[in-house]
Amino acid sequence: MSSRVETRTLVAVMLVYITRMLGLFMILPVLVLNQDQYAGATPLLIGIALGAYGLAQALFQVPMGRLSDRLGRKKIILGGLVLFALGSLVAAMADHIWVLILGRTLQGAGAISAALLALLSDSSREQNRSKLMAILGVSIGASFGLAMILGPLMSAEYGISSIFWLCILLALAGGLAIWRLTPETAQDSPTFITEPVEQPLVQTELRRLNLGIFSLHTAQMALWLVVPLLLLESYGVAEQDHWLWYLIAVGGGFFTMAPVMQALARRNRFKATLLSGIFAIGLAQLMMSGNLPFALFIGALVVFFWGFNLLEATLPSLVSKWVEEQQRGRAMGWYSACQFAGTFVGGALGGFVYGQFGLQAVFLFALLLVLVWFVVALGTKPLPQLRSFVIAPLAPEQLQALAASSGVLSVRQYPADRETLVRVDMDRVAQETLQQFGLS
Fold first, then answer.
1. 341: which of 50, 207, 287, 397 lies 20 to 30 Å off by Cα?
2. Does residue 330 sit within a domain?
3. What spatial distance separates the first Cα and last Cα of the chain, rounded to whole Å?
4. Domain holding 265: CATH number?
5. Is the Cα dihedral 161, 166, 172, 174 positive or negative?
6. What does the alpha-carbon distance between residue 209 and residue 142 come to, in Å, rounded to a whole number?
7. pTM of the entire structure?
8. Residue 37 and residue 31: Cα distance in Å, rounded?
9. What does each C-alpha distance from 27 to 88, 151, 169, 191, 364 come to in angstroms?
10. Treating both helix axes as pointing N-terminal to C-terminal, what angle do 294-322 and 328-357 enclose, rounded to 10 degrees?
11. Among residues 53, 69, 88, 148, which one has the least CA distance to residue 329?
């Protein structure tokens, strides 16, 4: 069961993700159809306009994440939303392709994914984090599906600029959610950090995870280059009916994945979770590279999204477990930068492979990448035995005593929610400490 702090933080982060991603996704199916509205537009520059957002995201995730470690998560998130709104304003008023590219770049410069993930990690227990990340992932998927419907409707009725004006309103809504819903910690709440895990080990594991999210999003973007064409040309599915099969694939993958993820997380089997997800992604690529009957092709998509949802929920949770709170924004910055870099590479390199070798070769390209990832993931080391507990508020002297106890990594008090979040290294904490403060 989620605590009040976890629930409020999840809702705030989820609303920001939905409002930002909805506006960004809505432009994908309509920009190329409206390129004649922009002076100087060419297919290449339209592609740059679409990709400018992702490239700016990849470049700015790390500095924005590091700033969130120093200045606080909420300030950076609100600042990023201001940049996103400013970029949306420039894009809404653009009548030349280079002005549109500038607007899209400014939108991407508001790179707050790292700060949002760090905020959710800061306020959640280790044992609940994968579940919360999965819920966040589902909300993003839902916004994608809604955007595919709303984007064409708004563009046809009100013009493409209406989407960018809506982005400004959505940025304001996201800022209001962060401002009003994010729980506040006590200003004098003590934080005690023990000796960190050996840094070379931490860096090695973080690199594995960064390679993982890069590979995952490279494979996903490459998949979207060819699956719509296969549905239309090979299986005769009308374009207006594609959403139904995507809903079956994404929804089926999530609902069959959730119980497996929960069972593995309860047993701290994170390496098994990783390898299972990677294996599923690779198996799906191998299946789709052949000429499958339609039912098996949809089954392969379900297998892909089973693995994708499992990994999308597990990878950021593992990053947060390997780093201390003061470094979490920076670590999430590199993680998010690799994610957006994978999106860019998957589109660019996948398009090249498709143009040179055909549709099926794209699946084999993704399969090769996933095989490399699987081999690297075999070396994953066990996590420290960390747990988090939610207890009632403590008096100042009790807080000091708890924070100073061996094995207690951090103590965060949320007065308005009447909760205290305690993070503990179970290999180092004394049983007497757990019993004295009701950490169970």
1. 287
2. yes
3. 14
4. 1.20.1250.20
5. negative
6. 25
7. 0.73
8. 10
9. 11, 6, 15, 44, 29
10. 150
11. 69
Q: Do 333 and 280 belong to one domain? A: yes
Determine the residue type at 351.
G
Q: Which helix (H) or strand (E) holds 292?
A: none
Q: pLDDT tens digits for the chain (440 residues)?
A: 567 788 888 888 888 888 887 777 777 767 766 778 889 888 678 767 777 787 888 888 888 888 888 888 888 999 999 999 999 999 999 999 999 999 988 998 888 888 888 888 777 776 677 677 767 766 776 676 677 677 778 887 888 899 999 999 999 998 998 888 887 664 434 444 444 444 555 788 889 999 999 999 888 878 877 887 788 888 888 766 777 787 788 778 777 877 777 676 666 678 888 999 999 999 999 999 888 999 999 999 999 989 988 888 788 878 877 777 667 777 888 888 888 888 777 777 777 787 788 888 989 999 999 999 999 999 988 777 777 788 888 887 887 888 788 878 778 878 777 888 888 877 778 888 888 878 77
- DSSP letters, 259-282, are HHHHHHHHTT-HHHHHHHHHHHHH
Within 10 Å of residue 43's Cβ, how many Cβ atoms? 9
Q: Say if 191 falls within a structural domain.
A: no
What is the domain count for the chain? 3
**What CATH number does residue 429 fall under?**
3.30.70
Whether the Cβ atoms of residue 6 and residue 123 lie closer than 8 Å to each other:
yes
* Helices and strands in the chain, H and E counts: 15, 3
Which domain, by its residues, includes 205?
197-383
| 320 and 334 together in one domain | yes
Q: Output DSSP code: residue 230.
A: I
